[in-house]
Amino acid sequence: MRQWTSCGYQFNTSTERFGELRSSNDILKDGQALSERMKDDGYLFLRGVLDNDLVLEARHELLLKMAVNNQIDDDYLINEGIDPSLKTEVDQTSYREGRAVRQLAHQGEMTEFYETFFGKQVQAFDFIWVRIVGVGVSTGCHYDWVYMGRGSKSLHTSWTPLGDVSKVEGALAILHGSHKFSGLISTYGSIDVDDERTNQKYGGWYTQNPVEVQEKFGGRWLTTDFEMGDLVVFSMHTMHCSLDNNSPNNRIRLSLDTRYQPAGDETDERWVGESPMAHGAEAKRG
User: N or C: which end of the chain has fewer CB within 10 A?
Assistant: First the structure.
C-alpha cells in the first residue's frame, strides 16, 4: 500500500486508521438527514454538486492572476488550456475578489445547499480563503474554530477543489470522529488565535503529525481523489489537514475555503464587511 504523508509525516494507512470519505449525495435534498449525518460524521462529502464550468472559470481566473505575479509561467498556463495573452495586471489581494471565485462561493449551488442544510437563509463570510498549494506543501492538523470562533455556533466550512485534486496532489483529509473529542475541544479547540489570554500554549495548528492526534484521541483519517465539482462541508470542530502535494507534473493545487452560517446569527467581525480585518492588529485581544 502506498504511504501518504502530511507535513512530511506518514499516515497510518491501516484500514482501522485510514480510508475513503463517504458520499452524502443520497441525502443531498434532505436537510434533516444532512444535519443528522453532520452530527454523526462531522463532515459531508458531495460528489459533482457544483457547476464544472464555473469551477474551471474560477481556476483559470486565479491562474492568470498568478502568472501576472510571476508565480507560474506561460507554459503552465498553456498546459492548463489558457491563452497567456489573457493576462492583465492585478494585485495579489484581488485573488479572492474575482468574479468567478465570488460567484462560485456566494451564489448558485453553494448557497442552495446551505439553505437546505440550515433550513433557512444563509450568510456567507465575505472573506474568501484562496489556497495555492505547490509541490512539497501541505496544511497541518487543526480545527477551524480557533481562527473564527467569535460568532455563530452553527458556522460551517466549505472546501472546494478548483479542478481535479488527487491524493498525490495534496487532497484534503478529515479525521472522522474528531468533532466528538471533548478533551481536545475543551483545550486546543477553545482557543482564539488572536486572543493572548487563550492562545498561550497552542498555535493555529494542533500538530503537523496526523498520527499524533490519533494516538491521543483516536479517529480515522478519510480522504479521496477529488474531482471537479466536488464539495466537502465540515464543522468548526472537525479536525482536518491536507496530504503533501507530491504531484509528478508539478501541478499546483488550487482550492477555496469559504464559511457559512444561518442569516441572523452573530458573526465573527474579522471576516465580514467590505474590507474584513482578518488576523491583523485590529483583531487582537488580551
Answer: N
Across the chain, where does the E strand assignment appear? 5-6, 9-10, 18-20, 43-46, 122-124, 129-133, 156-161, 172-176, 220-223, 231-235, 240-242, 253-262
Taking the C-alpha atoms of residue 246 and residue 241, their distance in angstroms, rounded to an integer, is 15
**Per-residue exposure over 66-84, b if at least 16 CB sit within 10 Å of its own CB, e if not:** bbbeeebeeebbeebebee
Q: What are the cell numbers at 87?
A: 493576462
Residues 6-41 pLDDT 10s: 999 999 999 999 999 999 999 999 999 999 999 999
What gap in Å lies between CA 182 and CA 31, rounded to an integer? 26
Other Cβ atoms within 10 Å of 91 Cβ, number: 10
Quick one: three-class SS letters along 40-79? Answer: HHCEEEECCCCCHHHHHHHHHHHHHHHHHCCCCCHHHHHH
Q: In this predicted model, what pLDDT tens digit does every residue of 237-272 receive, in sequence order?
A: 999 999 999 999 999 999 999 999 999 999 999 999
Closest residue by Cα to residue 57 from 74, 81, 89: 81
Amino acid identity, residue 112?
Answer: E
Contact indicator for 74, 84 with CB cutoff of 8 Å: yes
The structure's pTM equals 0.96
Query: Three-class SS string for 146-187?
Result: HHHCCCCCCCEEEEEECCCECCCECCEEEEECHHHCHHHHCC
Taken in order of first residue, the domains within the chain and their CATH numbers are 20-264 (2.60.120.620)
Rounded Cα distance, 127 and 273, in Å: 8
